Every structure is written in structure tokens, then in C-alpha cells.
């Protein structure tokens, strides 16, 4: 009994979920605090200037701030992310987790000092740079996904990834629900946002201590299926990323030429990267504009309503988890991805016509499977690379998403500014079109897999 409890304790120490949960609560607190601090700052700045449209002036000022902030936050990890992930693959898996958490602590402390000492809002550009140079979310999430891959088998990896995303979403839900009340509730006694940012810093401190003192790296044995090992024995000269080509065509005989095995694997990896980038463009562009859209007419939400709206977005993590839990029993990964893309695209199209609060929640409800595509794409990619390359592949994907996201954020913010007085929901229609476009490479993957298996196995596995 003592031995089994000891094994259980050791297994629990491999759980990355406490880091995911605590860091996401911290992020939810910080995001709400930053948005409302920036809004209040430009309210005071624009209050002294005469303007025929003070709300539009504030919207443009906040939008311009986030253009620069997101550029710095997105591009600064390019300096360090790949190096940290490579160190994680070669030296220790904790490196791409602990370094970003240190950066988070430093950058959130700068926001606290900005509130307490009334520093100019431009200080947050430096905070974003500090966060990014320490790896940022790009490196942290790649490190988390690498640990998740090591601790799971191929057959259960999609479910493992969506469980991590579920924990992420539930924590975000709790953080978003609490953030509006914390911001408003303590604003009479303290400078607005102080308590919220302090709670965020405390959560990140817990993450760092847990990662250093408690977390252990899971044994990689579970993530090395026998068929991948046998494929290596048959042809040890194949490049690393082809070792799991059997994930898409395990019924093929192994006697084919090297090029016939390499090409499908490489092609599928490229198509999955393209699909992930296109889908992320659609999501990031829409989600960057959504907070600004909620602050102005016709909705004009306050801090509590924004917290509720963000919480409704996080419910998607639960519904997407349930979707993968059910669909993975009867559908293939590629089919689940397509269901998720369609779910988001229709939901964001409805969002383009939101005039009342209830319609916003209907649009969110239609997006119930919108989270399925990216973790499932990561799962498919992990089946085409070896365990020793998980960190590099995941960070390359994350960097691709970040670079595309930075460009998208800038373009969408400018489009939003130019369509503000004409049709402020135009960006949502654009996201709908880009989301539909991501179905093209996914269709090619489905066709490629069907031709490889030579049956309808692609639909049902």
C-alpha cells in the first residue's frame, strides 16, 4: 500500500495542470486589469481635450496602444523562444517553463508600479518586451505541450491535450468571473487595478515555485509507441520527423522506398502548419477586436459585463473537451478539426450582427467546438516527430502562430479603426472568410490520408 501511494505521489508530481491553471487565472486577472487601466488612462488624457466624438477618440487610442503592445509582445519571443525550447529538449524540460514564468513576474510587477506611481502607459511596452525576451507564452505553452506529449500515448494524445486546454479554460473562466468584481470592488479603497494585479503576481509566483520545487518530468516511455520503434528498426536512416508516418498509414507495408514515406509525412506537416496558421489568424484577429467592440455602442459593457463575456468565452474550453471526449471514439483527428473550424466560423459570422447582449451569447454558444482545432493539430504533428524533437516542433508552430498573430493584430486594428464609423463588425466577417479558407489545407490532409489508407478510415479511424 505504501509503495502504491508513493507511485501515485510521484505520478501526481508530473502533472503540469497546476501551472496551467494558476498561470491562466493570473493571465485573466492581468488582461482585465490592463484593458481597464489603459481605458481609464486615455479617458483622463482625452478628458482635457475637446472632441466631438470622445468615445471614438478613446477607442482609437486604446486600439493604437494594443497595436504596439501586441507587436512588442509577439515579436520579442523570436529572440529567445527557439533557444530556450532547444535547451529544454537537450538539457531539462523545465527550462522553457521556468524562464517565461520569471518574465511574467517581472512584467506584471511593472504594471503594479505603473498603477501605484502613476507612470506613463508607455511603460507597458517595456513590460511586454521583458515578458517576450524571457520566452513569453510562446515558449511556456510549447514547454507545456512537450511535457504533455511525453506523458501520453499516441492514441490518447488528442484527449491529453484537450484536458490541458480544459484546465486552462476553467481557470480562465474563474479568473474572468472574479476579475471584474475585484477591479470594481476594491477601486474605492485602492488605486483601480492594484488588488487585481497583486493577485496576478501571487499566482505567477506559485507557478514558478511549483515548477522548480514540485514538478517532475514524466518518463518518455509512454509516448513511444511500438509501431514507431519498429519503423525505426526497419529504416534507421529516415529523418526524425518521419518516424511516426505510420500514424496516417499504419496499414501500409514497410517495404516502400524512403521517399514514399518521407513525402507524405512532410506534406502533412506543412499542410497542418498552414491550416493552424490560417485558423489562428481568424481567431486572433476576431478576439483582438472583440474587447474594443464590447466597450462601445451598441453594447457599451462595464467591467463586470466584460468579465461575464470573457467567462462565456472560456465555457468553450469545456464544450470543446466534451466534443473531443465523445468524437475521438468515432471520428478521426482531421474530422474533429474541421468540426471545430466550422463551429468558430459560423459563430463569428453571427457575432458580426450582434446588436444586443443576448445575441452575443448566442454567437458564443455556436462556437462551442472552436477550441478543438489547434490542440488536435498539435496532437497530429506530434505523431510525425520523435519525442526528442517535441519542444522544437511545438515552439516552431507557436512562433509561426505568434508572427502571424502579430501581423493580424496590427492589420485588424487598422481595419477596425477605418471601419469604426461605417461597420464596426467588419473584422468579424473577415475572420469568417479566413476561417473557411483554413478548411482547404485540412481537406488536402483528409484526401492525402484517405489515399494513404485506401479506405474511409480517415473519417472514423
From TrEMBL:
* TM spans (from-to): 66-85, 97-119, 125-147, 159-182, 194-217, 267-294, 306-327, 334-354, 360-381, 393-416, 422-447
**Mind listing the GO molecular function terms for this protein?**
transmembrane transporter activity
The domain of life for this entry's organism is Eukaryota
GO cellular component, alphabetical, reads: membrane
Q: InterPro entries from the entry?
A: MFS_trans_sf (IPR036259)
List UniProt keywords, sorted A-Z. Membrane, Transmembrane, Transmembrane helix
Gene3D superfamilies, sorted: MFS general substrate transporter like domains (1.20.1250.20)
Q: Where in the cell is it found?
A: Membrane
- Chief localization: membrane
Stated membrane topology is: Multi-pass membrane protein
User: What is the name attached to this protein's record?
Assistant: TSCOT protein
Source species of the chain? Pachyramphus minor
